Amino acid sequence: MPLILKQEFKSWIMRSLIFLVASCPCSIVISVPLAFFSCIGKVSKKGMIIKGSKHIENLSKARYIAFDKTGTITTGKMQIDKLNLTGNMQKTQVLQYMYAMEKNSNHPISTAIKQKVESEGLESEIIVDEYEEIAGYGVKGKIEGKEILFGNAKLLEKSNMKQETTKNANYLIVNGEIEASITFKEEIRESSFGISEKLNKVGINETIILTGDNEESANKIGSKVGINKIFAGLLPTQKLEKVRELKQSGKVIFIGDGINDSPVLAESDFGIAMGNASEIAESSADALLISNNIGSLPNIIKTAKKNMRIIKFNIAFSLIVKAIVLTLGVIRNSTNMASDSSRYRSKFTNSIK
């Protein structure tokens, strides 16, 4: 160009340096990663660890959130709901018999009974002889020579006891007579209440529960926390299918804690494992909610959305500034070319004269 336009090399070298500096992507390369790292830091302060900046965009674009129920919406712990006395035994004695039968077990129902008895100071030194666990039914043994059975409605059928039963109740049977029935309820996380409405305010279209538990229990929990769309009685493969269906309409977040949740956590666009999740669930998820505080999710999503807006602004601002500098460089060059041509025309006119 300097040879064609008969201009100085110095002028064109300076212009080429302007283009070289202006087109350098340093502003984008520096600002974008820093924004992502800043977002990860802010989210960690809210109780969630994200495994890499690449997942933040999916979090910000999510339109659906699916929750597992047990251990996620609920704490996974059981509480005694109702104790009905149907025989001649007193409440204290019934609880002591149940405590004696269950004190060596770590089952959620056993834990609920032990907490109830210990909190009321009703522990006793009752000895259970010939103790035996009946998988899927309950336990049996002998107390003071009495035949004791404690378990679910299926245990009554197994013992050939024709009795009207409640689906979710457990029964204490002494010498073939039902002395009491007890029902349990799951302990709901305080942060779960009203979560659907809060998530709607940050752009989540639908909040869903996907659970393997029975429909009655799932609907009861869902109504208490304000989640209306519930799919109950699902196998792990059916959960996977539901998430794939949702993904056809938008980005999906799934939150779970169990071994059975790991395929769904991996399949979802953004998988979140609870802080007390199983090891395989943690490894399958994109983030870990170490605080177990579901109520922090709206603020976390809001932070991710804000971060993406900042990144887009940084990129747009950088490109606009570059375009302005490059345009000014071109205009300046054109102005010089115009002045040079005018000078050549004046010299040519003077030579003719």
Describe the structure.
The chain starts with a helix and ends with a helix. 50% of the residues lie in helices and 23% in strands. Helix 2 packs antiparallel against helix 14, helix 3 (26-45) runs antiparallel to helix 14 and helix 6 (91-102) packs across helix 7 (108-119). The strands form two sheets. Strands 1-13-12-11-2-9-10 form a seven-stranded mixed β-sheet, sandwiched between helices. It has helices at 2-5, 9-22, 26-45, 56-60, 69-73, 91-102, 108-119, 153-158, 195-200, 215-225, 236-247, 262-267, 279-284, 297-352, and strands at 48-50, 62-67, 74-85, 129-134, 138-143, 146-152, 169-174, 177-188, 206-210, 229-231, 251-256, 270-274, 287-289. It is built from 14 helices and 13 strands. It has two domains: 29-74 and 189-306, HAD superfamily/HAD-like (Rossmann fold); 76-187, Calcium-transporting ATPase, cytoplasmic domain N. It has 353 residues and is of the alpha/beta class. Helix 10 (215-225) links the parallel strand 9 (206-210) and strand 10. It is rod-shaped.
What descriptive keywords fit this protein?
single chain, 353 residues, alpha/beta, Rossmann fold, Calcium-transporting ATPase, cytoplasmic domain N, 2 domains, six-stranded antiparallel beta sheet, 13 strands, disordered C terminus
